[in-house]
């Protein structure tokens, strides 16, 4: 199995940053509890109050696909149209260096 790193960038609509942050924060505990989750960390930009980034590591692509199908993620996805400006910037990465 190949570990998968995800960097998801979301930009809130004007006036929706706090609501987006709360919705993202609510995803953290159930996502971390998923069997294939290595880490699931929410970050808030210091230079743009509307930008939120989720840094995730999964044991495999299958674990990520399972995450996308969970009820908590599906419920979050239903809110996105009201909260974000544009679409989610999603990067799928594979580590090529050895771990520190």
UniProtKB/TrEMBL annotation:
The keyword Oxidoreductase applies. InterPro entries: ABM_dom, AI-2_Isomerase_LsrG, Dimeric_a/b-barrel. SUPFAM superfamilies: Dimeric alpha+beta barrel (SSF54909). It comes from the Bacteria. GO terms for molecular function: monooxygenase activity. Gene3D superfamilies: 3.30.70.100. The keyword Oxidoreductase applies. Residues 4-93 form the ABM domain. It holds the Pfam family ABM. GO terms for cellular component: cytosol. Keywords: Monooxygenase, Oxidoreductase. This is Antibiotic biosynthesis monooxygenase. It comes from Terriglobus albidus.
């Amino acid at each position: 199995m190949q570990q998968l790193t995800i960097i998801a960038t979301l930009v809130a609509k004007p006036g929706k940053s706090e609501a987006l942050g709360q919705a993202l924060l609510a995803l953290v505990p159930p996502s971390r509890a998923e069997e294939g989750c290595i880490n699931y960390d929410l970050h808030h930009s210091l230079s743009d109050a509307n930008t939120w980034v989720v840094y995730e590591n999964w044991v495999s692509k299958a674990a990520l696909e399972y995450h996308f199908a969970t009820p908590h993620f599906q419920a979050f996805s239903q809110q996105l149209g009201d909260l974000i400006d544009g679409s989610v910037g999603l990067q799928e990465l594979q580590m090529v260096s050895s771990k520190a």
